[in-house]
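Example 9 (inverse folding). The structure is encoded as follows.
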């Protein structure tokens, strides 16, 4: 009883929001399996974020550390993308000297991800730092080839993230879909794909729906974020989010679309609105 009372006080202290009935989740159409990125809601305890996510019809929580992998399951969710020591944004697969550490991390954490039902783990290319894109692609292919069997053996997909190098991650190498597709096609594993971040790729190249549909076999996961500013998915942004979601659904994508925007307003209200918008 005390635990329930404390939980009620905590919920009441969270940002103003009409919580859905705790008896049932909001029904969703199911064409898009939506998730939410944990780091955008750091002030909300993970268990409470998961509880709210489940009630508004989300299916997962993104970007959790290994000791958090199993938390979403308490609320009928999954960790849809996990960290597994796959390198850092600025220093990862495009440098051979990083491959041993990344392999060590994947050998340690991918089995834990599989046990917890985590379908994806993240990795990065790293920055150019004077390296040519050709050399970086060669190195990244070698690094992914080194670890792909770990992923294949455990049924977990390694996702190489596409990020923009124009605004947020200066000098990042995997900054265009064509480069990323070149890499994962060469690796040629069903367990090595791209994390297509819609926010980042709108900044770098646009042409979202056609690019997604032409390359859907190489895409394992999606992130959202309003452009410009990486805030709410609303009328102030240049991406027509429901149209992009229809394009993803039309490509028969079976993975997750995780919201990775930083709320500038009431965070839970903004998340609910984004989920409603993308429920096509």
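The amino acid assigned to each position is listed next.
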């Amino acid at each position: 009883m005390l635990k329930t009372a404390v939980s009620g006080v905590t919920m009441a202290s969270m940002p103003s929001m009409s919580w859905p009935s705790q008896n049932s989740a909001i029904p969703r159409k199911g064409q898009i399996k939506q998730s939410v990125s944990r780091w955008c809601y750091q002030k909300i305890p993970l268990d409470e974020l998961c509880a709210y996510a489940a009630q508004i019809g989300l299916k997962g929580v993104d970007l959790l550390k290994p000791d958090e992998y199993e938390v979403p399951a308490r609320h009928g969710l999954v960790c849809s993308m996990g960290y597994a020591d796959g390198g850092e944004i600025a220093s990862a697969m495009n440098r051979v000297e990083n491959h041993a550490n990344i392999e060590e991390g994947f050998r340690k954490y991918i089995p834990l991800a599989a046990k917890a039902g985590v379908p994806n783990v993240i990795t990065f290319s790293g920055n150019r730092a004077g390296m040519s894109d050709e050399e970086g692609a060669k190195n990244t292919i070698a690094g992914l080839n080194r670890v792909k069997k770990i992923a294949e053996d455990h049924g977990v997909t390694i996702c190489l993230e596409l990020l923009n190098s124009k605004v947020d991650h200066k000098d990042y190498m995997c900054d265009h879909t064509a480069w990323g597709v070149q890499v994962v096609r060469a690796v040629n594993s069903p367990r090595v794909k791209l994390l297509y971040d819609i926010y980042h790729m709108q900044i770098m190249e646009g042409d979202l729906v056609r690019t997604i549909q032409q390359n859907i076999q190489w895409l394992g996961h999606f992130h959202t974020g309003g452009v410009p500013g990486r805030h709410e998915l609303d009328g102030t942004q240049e991406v027509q989010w429901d149209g992009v979601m229809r394009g993803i659904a039309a490509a028969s994508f079976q993975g997750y679309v995780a919201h990775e925007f930083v709320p500038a307003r009431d965070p839970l209200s903004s998340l609910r609105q984004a989920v409603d918008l993308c429920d096509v």
